[in-house]
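Hey, can you fold this one?
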Amino acid sequence: MTTNSQSQAVTGPDIITFGETMALLMPSNGKGLEYSSELHSLFGGAESNVAIGVSRLGGKVGWFGRLGKDPMGRLIYKKIRGEGVDVSRAELTAEAPTGLMMREMIMGKTSVYYYRKNSAASQMSAKHLDEGYIAGAKILHITGITPALSESCKEAAFEAVRLARKHGVKVSFDPNLRLKLWGIDEARPVLLELAKLSDIFLPGLDELKLLYQTEDWDVIVGKLRELSAVSIVKGGENETYVVTKDSITAVPYFKAEQVVDTVGAGDGFCAGFLVGLSKEYDYAEAVRIGNLVGSLIVQTEGDWEGAPTWEQVDAILNDVKHIER
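Sure. Predicted structure:
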């Protein structure tokens, strides 16, 4: 990642995002971590999951962040680059290691354990932002995970939003509330402030109940309508909601044939939704694409491995029959 104080836009991806991507270890045999002698080595991070999803769908996308100059950092860098994501502003540093997360699923419930304190990504700051790179994009996508990592990461997130707004770049914000990283009382004011600064707000319904401290849907809608953003509310019983100043549109889910791994569903949704917007679909149709991508992601193990291509999505949307032979 390079520092660039120049305000002139550079030619680059239409959609950019940044944040921490970590090595991921998972049991290979369905046992809990405590009882498993074999682990799959994967990687994941909300923002890079979105970036890979966008790239698979044919979008021009860039991801940047800081990774340790270690085996997992180099693997992650090469894998993301290999998925067609621009990583020209990403950095491998010897100053700190790549973060690690471990995940297990026991009795249908997923548990994640983080080892990311003092990681390379947690040391990111506003000085690592390239203003010209941000200025050249159409959409900056951020999540609430980055400001939870450290004070300098929080400053970087707000500075990235400021730069985007300065240059007329739309800001997409998924709060991605992680209570293992910070408490709700610390997170609430930060996430609500980022929501106010965004053009597109992508919360889950459960997150909104915590952020607004109410279970009342009408109160939540009222709060969302105080924002300047269009709000896309994930996690309804059977649909995703598009909430604007004067309307609510419910967009039905796509049924998953099988659910293997639910982690990454929200990131897949964001990828599909953002690609839909980049193709100039209206919000409801972009949400429909997001719903479909999310339903496909959960049918494969891993955070991003099940991300579909645009051809696969288009075939399902248009009910194109698969010819096996």
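The two ends are 47 Å apart (CA to CA). Let me know if you want another pass with a different chain boundary.
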